Amino acid sequence: MKTTCPYCKTDSVFYRAEKLTDTESSLDLQCADIKACGARTTYTLSVKKLLQPSRLPIDKQNPNPNGLLSSRQRIHCSCCGQPAVIYARYNPTHITSDFYTQCQNPACQARVLVDLSYQSTELPPITNVQLMAVQIIRTTPPKRRAELQLDLLAMAG
Ligand SMILES: [Zn+2]
Ligand SMILES: [Zn+2]
Question: Model pTM?
Answer without folding.
Answer: 0.78
